[in-house]
Amino acid sequence: MRSEPTPFEGGPMDGRVLPILTGPTGHPPKWYEIPVPTPDGPPTVLLYERVPSGYSKRLGLQKGWKYAFRPSGTKPRPRWPWTKTPRPQA
User: Fold this and answer.
1) How would you write the pLDDT of the chain (90 residues) with one tens digit per residue?
2) SS3 (DSSP) at 11
3) Which of 11, 15, 43, 70 could form a Cys-Cys staple with 47, CB 3.0–4.6 A?
4) Residues whose CB falls within 8 Å of the CB of residue 53, separated by 6 or more in sequence, listed in order
5) Nearest to 12, CA basis, from 69, 75, 74
């Protein structure tokens, strides 16, 4: 499997670079979860989202990926085109 050194930004992992396994498309996963054990109760989960790390000056091509800290700790729900929010009946 191929891995790519990916920097982390924000949160407790700020400034660290970890080798992250890439998928079949060559991209790291969209979300990266880090479980942190607690002495009592369920572990806390740190959530990082994959964002572009920057763009080249001349052509505007993407340089790579980095992970940004998501303090809310929740992923957004997928929005499928065939699901609609219910409208209030008048």
Assistant:
1) 799 999 999 999 999 999 999 999 989 999 999 998 989 888 889 999 999 999 999 999 999 999 999 998 888 888 888 877 777 776
2) helix
3) 70
4) 7, 62, 63, 64, 65, 66
5) 69
In this prediction the pTM is: 0.79
Tokens, residue 49: 């989202």
For residues 42 and 63, what is the distance between their CA atoms, to the nearest angstrom? Answer: 37
Q: Which pair of structure tokens corresponds to residue 47?
A: 């959530």
Tokens of 4: 């790519």
Euclidean distance between CA atoms 65 and 54, whole angstroms: 8
